[in-house]
Amino acid sequence: QRGYARQELDLKVGVAFSRFQTRFFQGRYGDLDSAVLSYGPCQTPTLGFVVQRHVQIETFKPEPYWVLDLAVLKQGRICRATWESGRSFNQNKVNSLVIKCREADPPCKARVTSVVSKDKKQGRPTPMNTVALLKACSKALGIGPHAAMQTAERLYLSGYLSYPRTESTAYPKSFDIAGTLRQQAGDNRWGSYVRDLLSEGHNKSKGGVDMGDHPPITPCRAAGPHELSGDMGRIYDLVVRHFIASVSHDAVWRSTRVKLELDTLGDQGKFTISGKKLSSPGFLAIVLYKQYGDEAGDSKDGEDDEEERELPDFTEGEEIPLFTSSSGSSRVAVAPGVPTWATLDVKERMTTPPTHLTESELISLMEKHGIGTDASIPTHIENILKRNYSELIPGRKLCPSKLGLVLAQGYHLIDDSLVLPKIRSDIEGECNKIAKGLADKCEVIKKAIDIFEGKFDFFVKNINKMDILFGSSFSQLQDIGTPFTRCGLTRRYLMYINGPPPRLYNKYTETVYPLPAGGVIKQWTGRKCSAPDCNFELCLYSVGAPPRTFPLCPYCFNHPQKEWGKIPGEDEFSNEVPEDSVDREDEAKERKFRRLGGRSLILECPHPDGHPLIEDLTVSPDPDSDGVLILDPHFGPKWRLCSTRDPTIVHLPKEVHKVTILDRTEDVLGCHYMQIEFDAEKSPLEDGKVKYTSCFPTDDLMQNLVRVHRGSERLNASGRGRGGR
Predict the structure, then answer these.
(1) How much is the pTM?
(2) Using CB atoms within 10 A as the burial measure, which of 159, 242, 450, 626 is most buried?
């Protein structure tokens, strides 16, 4: 019930907003780099997180600050101490402290006030749920959330991993930990470690919650080192190591903190030197923790602030001579025979902005604010990339695109709750109440729909605020494009806009004519459409490899008639052309918006076979499809016939010099006769004749001379790709 409520809300709200803003903006601006301007109650707050971090970076102003830098040379090692006062934005103040130490009498010394060494545990990781898997794959393996989830599902279907969509972070009581470990005991990558763990006794998993849906992600059977390859092998390796680590012993670090004071400076002269050394690796021996980051285990007592290094021996009460230079440089002359000394200097540094959100950080924010579920988080991140709202930059970080920035800022101008996570988080809380039996599904849906209905009405009334942002960032249709063909209504040139989606625009009437996608559109020397009352100049549409070329009328493509037959690129329901003229006009507008939304991929002839343009060129039915064979509208010099519904090309013999379509048609089949002229020197006809009239479907002579080629529906790929997701 919770899932159905969530799905219904997201669908209804998303469709309403997406439909409206796509209709409003796609017909006004020509260089939008997204076919659909989608909105989603989860997708848009996800974009909001990315934009918020980007704005913080762009508005950040670096400022200089200064710190005291105390370096201690002892036992041949230099240790740099941290100034406990932190930093100062007043350079004179910090310089005065160094001068005070330099002029001190007796000479200033650094005194060791305490030396504390103790063992600190680094806890083993909790069992892996979906969110932990996605974060670990992005951070440790460089695999995006969407690709990681797809790969994990393939491993599940192949029987290597348990179900990868789970919120549980605790193994159920019935789970056989020892048996699962024994499955991995023979692997040469971790078998020795597992055998030792079984002999010593494995640990219980740490903390976590059993949500009761599915157990945490674990290996289900062993896979040899070369059994799985690519991302499947890497993710399997990650999951196995994580599982073994989750029932291993904690790691133990030997931590040492040395506190020093410069008595001359009082409270402002306190410094700390810290370091840690691994004394018992525990689970770290099996987890690749340097790549794993914060997913490898929890941090306690601030041990992450400590550098992994071995410190020299310090003694409480020890005094270390301090050297300062009059020039302010840290390079000093050291008296021979002094084994331990320290230098004090001023270091200038700059404040730095935050970095763009990594995928792992974005997943954490989404989980924290209740945006999406463990199963849908990868889809929301993939959507903002696929819609060109954001792009993936090095380091698996997300940077918003110009379109993403404009959309997010536009939502903030109109109603910031559309992009902030709170309202979606509140709805998720209500959906959770449904699962617990504390709320009724229908009431939750009605309440949420009422809220968004009010927001939608307000959004529609104030869309001009967002339009101002679009106008300052994108080019309006009348300012871009190239003159292409003439309009049959105004005789003005239509401007060709490459898109996506491709379209023609009449800047005098502000009319948009979407064009088919998936092929190449070219001009065709001023030829006009032969359909009644049309008179639009024609284009040529080429698709497939090798390309098949068809005539294209911009007006007829967007206003098909019922008597022409099945509309290419439309499903069975959309192919129903209403009888009533008003309904027909509404359906034409709907088709236009679908095509403006990028749903006009057509890999065949863009007109029905009954369109007058196609009928005028038809010379035969296509025996291999429900289409027809038409004469290639290039009209030579390489003469050929193209199938309207199948990637079939019929090459006429090279000896053909000219082909003319006659008005005469075959009585039964309804196709046109062709008049074929051969080269005089190469004519295959008897007595050296060069002219020949052919009804191709029944002409044995011509069918024996032609060559039939079956190609591909798609053009050769030549676009850019986005890797690593």
Answers:
(1) 0.73
(2) 242
Integer Cα distance of 622 and 647 in angstroms: 11
Report the pLDDT value the prediction gives residue 106, as an integer from 0 to 100.
85
Cα–Cα distance, 608 to 643 (Å, whole number): 12
* Rounded distance between C-alpha atoms, residue 440 and residue 169, angstroms: 28
Candidates 333, 357, 351; CA nearest to 343 is 333
> How far is Cα 708 from Cα 701, in angstroms, rounded to an integer?
15
Tell me the Ramachandran region of residue 569: left when phi exceeds 0, alpha when psi lies from -120 to 50, beta otherwise: left
> For the segment 200-211, what is each residue's pLDDT rounded down to a tens digit?
999 888 878 887
pLDDT: which is higher, 680 or 93: 93
CB atoms within 10 A of CB 437: 8
Q: How far is CA 113 from the centre of its chain?
A: 54
| Cβ proximity of 440 and 3 under 8 Å | no
Q: What are phi and psi of 511, to 5 degrees?
A: -100, 135
Backbone phi, psi, residue 141, to 5°? -110, -15
- Contacts of residue 190, Cβ cutoff 8 Å, sequence gap at least 6: 184, 240, 241, 244, 286
Q: Is 163 a catalytic residue?
A: yes
Confirm if 667 and 644 have CB atoms less than 8 A apart.
no
Residue 111 in 3-state DSSP? strand
Among residues 65, 156, 163, 692, which one is catalytic?
Answer: 163
- Is 389 exposed, middle or buried, given 0-12, 13-18 or 19+ CB atoms closer than 10 A? buried
Q: By the 8 A CB rule, do 237 and 269 touch?
A: no
